[in-house]
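Read as chain and fold; for instance:
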Amino acid sequence: MHTYFMQLNLAEKKSVVQMIKTFLQRSKQETEHVTLEEYNKDIDEAMAEVARGESYSHEEVVKMSKNW
């Protein structure tokens, strides 16, 4: 990776470094733990969405995925 990185111009190097920082920040956010209250709230919200019909069946998702 170092060999390829050294072949980039300054603007490209800055872009790559910023991209890596973004990935690392997202990774850090994804590994942060939520409280039990936040977890339960997320579950309650998801269940309410399903109750309102705001969800897709497995068959619907399979059909939609064929157009991706």
About this structure: The CA atoms of residues 31 and 54 lie 27 Å apart. The two ends are 32 Å apart (CA to CA). Helices lie at 2-6, 10-31, 36-51, 58-65.
